TrEMBL record:
One of its GO terms (cellular component) is cytosol. Keywords: ATP-binding, Nucleotide-binding. This is 6-phosphofructo-2-kinase domain-containing protein. It comes from the Eukaryota. It comes from Symbiodinium natans. The lineage of its organism: Eukaryota, Sar, Alveolata, Dinophyceae, Suessiales. GO terms for biological process: fructose 2,6-bisphosphate metabolic process; fructose metabolic process.
Amino acid sequence: PRCIWLTRHAESEDQLSGILGSHRGELTKNGRNYCRELSAFLRKCRREMEEAGQVETSGDILVLMGTAPVHYSTLQSMMIKGSSPSLSSDMNGEMTPGGAVHCKGFQAMSTSLLNELDGGVCNGLSYAEIQNDYPDLWAARDRDKLNFRYPNGESYKDVIGRLRPIIIELERQRRSILVISHLAVQRCLYAYFTGTPMEEIPFLEMDMHTVAELRPGAFDCEVRQVKLWE
Ligand code: F6P
């Protein structure tokens, strides 16, 4: 049966400084190591699918991701020559937002639907700065994290709404899919497939450098957490 793999993008330098909506693309050393492990993990899964004769019927693995530079960095770092020959062979490093890349065994596509919950006026700030500069917003979010919408930004409910086309695509596809997104987006996708109540979504743990492997069935969804790097 096909898999849906959910992962957050690899750790970035911006993320380490704790700011919201970090969209630049420099990965940390741990982030680059994760990309190498993720690439090896996918190639192993693809090999197993080939051995089981599933590739003929289900086709290439689809990689879906957002349009932030950190997504391209994650994908490109997965394709570094030597670390992933099967991916790098047809890949010349050209990626544009909304573009698709096809390489042996994999097809990658990006869409802004998978970008992180928009922090609006708080983008670029840390939690400590928000608490200090916007105490009313901080308190309102604390009271109702699910419905709280950042001014000029989004709420969890907004993100759930915008992910509908992605969910339809994930339900429709017969091939295995890796989704590279962010914390809030991954919480929403994970909750949909596992039937987690909506109120719990903003508080779900989604570890870094870990793949949530989902196998949706007719009545339930098998879940396996695969920690690939620290
Ligand atoms: O890891 C940082 C981040 O993805 C932010 O960009 C985002 O605002 C946040 O996590 C979402 O988590 P929470 O809703 O718990 O603040």
